[in-house]
Backbone:
């Protein structure tokens, strides 16, 4: 039996047209050739979470997000840091995706977190908030050195991450995600 390709889903925590986080994901998408595929899903059409519209009345954009998460082998989340935390856009999307509790598409899903910031800390506080949210939804957060990209405005050119050391570091983290996906596949094959 042949090896099945690994399909990753990238989620940017910014909906800005020239988002540095989306630029990071696009750069990784191009650099992953042969290792895995990385699709990027925009969050522009995700409404604010409202439990009144949860369940059967779920908005179509949210349904598409949840289906994309379900069908992906793993997630790559890239968040900016706003006011010492993650973006409301990403938190809102994760809140939608975390439903229904204990049965959401995030449950058991391998997820790699990356953050970026124009500051020196690279979004480390946002990183922790995204981690906490994923853990509460029973996500399988990848344990590896934190990918935090500082001074991001100096490292993105022409809507792509141009700093080779940051690219290499992020790709190494993705290799940990790929290893986790392969580990889960082997475990499922044995059961």
Residues:
């Amino acid at each position: 039996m042949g090896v099945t390709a690994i399909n990753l889903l990238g989620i940017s925590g910014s909906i800005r047209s020239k988002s540095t986080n989306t630029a990071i994901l696009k750069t990784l998408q191009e650099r992953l050739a042969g290792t895995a595929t990385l699709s990027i899903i925009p969050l522009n059409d995700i409404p604010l979470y409202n439990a009144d519209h949860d369940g059967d009345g779920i908005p179509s954009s949210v349904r598409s997000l949840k289906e994309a998460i379900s069908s992906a082998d793993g997630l790559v989340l890239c968040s900016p840091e706003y006011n010492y935390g993650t973006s409301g856009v990403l938190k809102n999307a994760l809140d939608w995706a975390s439903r229904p509790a204990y049965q959401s598409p995030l449950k058991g899903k391998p997820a790699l977190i990356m953050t970026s910031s124009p500051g020196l800390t690279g979004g480390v506080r946002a990183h922790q908030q995204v981690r906490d949210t994923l853990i509460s939804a029973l996500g399988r957060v990848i344990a590896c050195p934190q990918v935090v990209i500082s001074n991001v405005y100096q490292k993105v050119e022409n809507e792509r991450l141009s700093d080779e050391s940051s690219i290499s570091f992020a790709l190494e983290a993705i290799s940990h995600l790929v290893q986790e996906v392969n580990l889960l596949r082997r475990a499922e094959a044995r059961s």
